Amino acid sequence: MKKLINDPKNVVEEMVEGYVNAHPDYIRQLPENNRSLVSVRETKKDKVGILIGGGSGHEPAFMGYVGEGMADGVAVGNIFASPSPQPILEVTKAIDKGAGVVYLYGNYAGDVMNFGMAAEMADMEEDIEVGAALASDDVASAPVDEKEKRRGIAGEFFVYKAAGAAADFGYKLEEVVRIAEKANENTRSMGVGLTPCYLPQTNEPSFLIDEDEMEIGLGHHGEPGIEKGKLETADRVADRLVEDILNDMDLEKGDEVAVLVNGLGSTPKMDLYIIYRRVDQILKEQGIKIYRSYVGNYITSLEMGGCSITLMKLDDELTKTVDHAVDCPMFVQK
Amino acid sequence: MEFTSADLKNYFDEVIEMIEEEKDYLCELDRKLGDGDHGVTMSIGWQAAKEMIDGDLKDEDDCGKISMIVGKTFLNAVGSSVGPLYATGLMRGAKTVKKKTVLNDDDLAEYWLAFVNGVQERGQAKAGDKTMMDTLEPFGEAFQVKFESANEFIPAFDHALGFARKGMESTKEMISQKGRSSRLGERSVGFQDPGATSAYLMLLTFLAYVKNKSAQVS
Fold first, then answer.
1. Quick one: closest CA in B to A77, which residue?
2. Are A266 and A230 in contact (CB under 8 A)?
3. Which of A91, A266, B198, B211 is the most buried (most CB within 10 A)?
4. Where is the DhaL domain (chain B) (predicted)?
């Protein structure tokens, strides 16, 4: 795979350097650790700090969501690998304003261990209260009775949105965690992969798939999905993904949802809007109201081809978080 | 046997070399089960450790400090799930040999058992889950029994390594229960676990090192 990089060993460091230098009005690197980035914007006193993080290769996630209205800081991992506890701890120290810090991350073994170790260190060594909420929205990754095994994919975006807003509203740590968990509880995603991504260091495809095939339920790191088959039309694919989501969540006529159609990296927005068109049709047919929509590349997998569809069921509280204004380098909502 | 702080550093150097040689193989195994980066991740961690061993640790002769710093360095460079797992092993091992510049058979036994227990505690996996514990758990059990009865490090380690190997190979037939690959369910069957493999290779490298050393002495 052709890539515009220098030494594959340095991709993360060089990306972070470019990012920080491109957006000095939003973000800065901590001198203690070059994988620790924090917002430069002033936040209210006593605001709960929001810390996000995960592996690189998912841009604009995760560092693209540090700014006003979402996260206050991010710990940056290697490609598709959780950051280690040290950068997480440094961000925690930098963004704590006395009200504690909430960690938001996807449900992956590595993230659970590293963020868990960092939370222990923050408590023991720094006396900072830490809460955590994990995203586990991927319907394809485990059956509903093993929901605790499900991994987090694009639905993480709604969890950040909800927690970021709650923190801005001045909610206390437990409340921010509760709202983040509620957002996750109400969120479901299903994805389809068309073409693999290539890790810069190996330049090998993350999975093998024929030119005329698609894989339903493929993970964000190329983890195999639930079903491989012939590539179908956008409408048929959207039908399938939405059907699996609706079968997994409790949505009734008259309910309101937020929709995210997320590109995995190399799929054009044209395709994403064609998918969205069908999602909109299906939900209208079912009498489900789309309150707000997001279409674009929100959490990617390098140059992977394909997309995911995410629905978050709304109530008054979650609607308020969805409406909250955000100003980040890679995402603005007025 | 007498195992010095220089030996410990030499052993880590051999692990570093071994990982560079096996990097592609470990990635290949991981592509079947995960995101295909296990070799790369191990290489990133051990290369960072190498810098430390050649730099700050050059004149360090406290085995505890060496192992502790190698563990911490590995963790910071890697993150991932591999980072906390191996780092916890190395750091728990370090605690058992704190302030010791020369290790005897008992020290080495304690070190490796603490290593195994540390990985287990951090990951909460058990044999049968298709993880590095499929190598480490049978290894630890066999080693402990043998070492307690015969009290000789090398034969006990050698004996236990056979169990480690069988454990590693048994992961081919298992359904993954932990980590990203657990989402594969039955489709994880047929492939050897990359973590179980790297854990085995680390033990194998240690045995080769101590055997070679004792051959030179005698």
1. B79
2. no
3. A91
4. 6-208
